[in-house]
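Here is one chain, start to finish.
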Amino acid sequence: MVLMISDKNNQLTQPIRDTLSLAAIPLLKIVEWPQEVYQIAEIAVSRQAHLIEENNQLKERLLDAELQVQQNLSLSAENQRLRSLLSASQNSPLSTSVAFVSNITQTQNKQQIIIDQGSADGLFVGQAVLNLAGVIGQVDVLSRHFAHVILVTDTNHAIPVEVLRTGLRTIAYGRGDHIYLAEIPTSANIQVGDVLVTSGFGNRFPRGLKLAEIKAMSVSPERTFKTAEAEPFAELSRLTEVFLVWPSDTTTFPTLNDDNQPEVSPQNLQENDSSGPSGDATVLNQSTAENE
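Its structure:
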């Protein structure tokens, strides 16, 4: 009791307490270190997730604006060709979503990628895929959580296009590393530097999306038709993320469920070398070519 009262009044043991406190600081730091590391990691992960989400939102907004600009270019070209008197249906508003590329397969004849979204995310076969530079391709094979996208340069792919300057409509075929226009009439007004946009035929790609620029022209030996080579605006060998496009009326393109679409793994998608585009895409290209 005497020691307790003396310590309370005169702080006799304060130096001892201070010494013990200094000795205990390393132990306290060791005990608190895991909690501090956890808090730092949690804050870093939370900030990274927030930045990724914000980045995706900004990219989607930028893509929406780019789509509107591209479609306005197409409408402006129509006005310049004195076609404003023709009745044309108004383009439907588009909704987009971002997906990330998980694998790329590019050979001389095969130009395909795999993305990390599938039928569970509302994707459908034939859905348009693009990036900020232009059209990339379309969904060819669906799994529940993955999708196989055939690029516009694949030899099994064809897409209806329109020459922005003149309104000439034709079919563009993939040629491995470029796009090929076959059997253009010799009287057609087309030249190097012309921009190709989607024509909207076939109801797969919205009208007015940038596709490629013509880089070379040639005439057949019989001089009965022209051919042209075009280079896509999108850098297909450097894809990291892509954008999926939905029309405003999604009932036009119903999504596939597990009852009518078998489960496909990413490995099976990558090994699908011998098969060309899906049946729907093939029918689209054939019917569009007949219409042209």
